[in-house]
User: Which sequence fits this backbone?
C-alpha cells in the first residue's frame, strides 16, 4: 500500500544532479564549486566558447588566404590503362560498364559520386561505358578501339 511518505520517483526518471549553493551541509556551499575569485566566480559571467582569456584567438592567429569553390565537382577518375588492365585479366564481362559495374570492379569507391574517364594509357579492346563525364582523348581512343562512351 502506497502512503504519501513512501512515494518514490520511477526508476530512471530523474538524474542525480549536484545541488550547489544550498548551504555548507550539502558539501557544495560557500563558493558553490565556482572557485575563490575571478570572472567566472561572479554572477552574470559568461564568455564565448572560443574566448581564450585575452590570448590572440585561434581564428585570428591562423593565416587566411585563397578561395574554396563550394560548387566544385569532385570526380572519381578512371584511366584507360586501368580498364585495359582489367580486360587483360578477363575481369570485364558485361557489355556496358556503368557506375555500379565500375564499383564492383574496384575502379571507383562509390557509384553515387560522379565518374570521369581520362585518356591516360591505351585501350585495345572494345568497351562500352556509361559515365558522368569523359575527356576528348579518352573518347577518341575508345571509339578507335571499336567501343562507345556515353554520358549517363
Assistant:
Amino acid at each position: 500500500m502506497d502512503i504519501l511518505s513512501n512515494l518514490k520517483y520511477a526508476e530512471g526518471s530523474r538524474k542525480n544532479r549536484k545541488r550547489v549553493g544550498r548551504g555548507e551541509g550539502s558539501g557544495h556551499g560557500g563558493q558553490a564549486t565556482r572557485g575563490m575569485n575571478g570572472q567566472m566566480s561572479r554572477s552574470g559571467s559568461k564568455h564565448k566558447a572560443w574566448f581564450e582569456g585575452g590570448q590572440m584567438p585561434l581564428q585570428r592567429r591562423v593565416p587566411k588566404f585563397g578561395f574554396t569553390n563550394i560548387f566544385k565537382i569532385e570526380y572519381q577518375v578512371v584511366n584507360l590503362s586501368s580498364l585495359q588492365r582489367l580486360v587483360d585479366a578477363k575481369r570485364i564481362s558485361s557489355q556496358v560498364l556503368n557506375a555500379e559495374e565500375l564499383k564492383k570492379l574496384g575502379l571507383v569507391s562509390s557509384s553515387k559520386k560522379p565518374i570521369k574517364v581520362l585518356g591516360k594509357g591505351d585501350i585495345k579492346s572494345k568497351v562500352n561505358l556509361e559515365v558522368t563525364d569523359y575527356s576528348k582523348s579518352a573518347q577518341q581512343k575508345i571509339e578507335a578501339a571499336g567501343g562507345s562512351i556515353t554520358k549517363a
Remarks:
- The chain has a mean pLDDT of 92.
- Strands lie at 76-79, 96-97, 115-118, 128-131, 133-134, 148-151.
- The longest strand covers residues 76-79.
- Residues 80-88 form the longest helix (9 residues).
